[in-house]
């Protein structure tokens, strides 16, 4: 669970390592204390960032507006802020995907 943290305002922070231009969107596993996410979008004009945010929203069952890029705009290592879910809920959802 090292990829998750609680922000001062109560929202969650998810550390992500992004693999752009993959064959499909998926959570691959854990990479250096970050959640490794593959997305089909290229790392051009923020498209990969938008793809990761959209994929996280879908997986976590929240609206896209509840997922914000906190840091790492041009890096593979990013931090996304998530509102509307508890740490236990997010951890459970991600661990169930990783177990499959």
UniProtKB/TrEMBL annotation:
The record ties this protein, via InterPro entries, to: DUF167, YggU-like_sf
Q: Which protein family is named in the record?
A: Belongs to the UPF0235 family.
Which range is the signal sequence, renumbered to this chain?
A: none
Recorded source organism is: Desulfopila aestuarii DSM 18488
Q: Which GO terms describe its cellular component?
A: cytoplasm
Specify the protein name.
UPF0235 protein SAMN02745220_01382
Q: Which Pfam families match?
A: DUF167 (PF02594)
Q: Which superkingdom?
A: Bacteria
């Amino acid at each position: 669970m090292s990829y998750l943290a609680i922000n001062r305002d109560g929202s969650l922070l998810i550390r992500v390592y992004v693999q752009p231009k993959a064959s499909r969107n998926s959570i691959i596993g854990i990479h250096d204390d970050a959640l490794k996410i593959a997305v089909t979008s290229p790392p051009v004009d923020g498209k990969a960032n938008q793809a990761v945010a959209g994929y996280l929203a879908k997986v976590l069952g929240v609206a896209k507006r509840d997922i914000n890029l906190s840091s790492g705009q041009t890096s593979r290592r990013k931090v996304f802020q998530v509102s509307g879910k508890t740490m236990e809920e997010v951890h459970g959802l991600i661990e169930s995907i990783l177990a499959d």
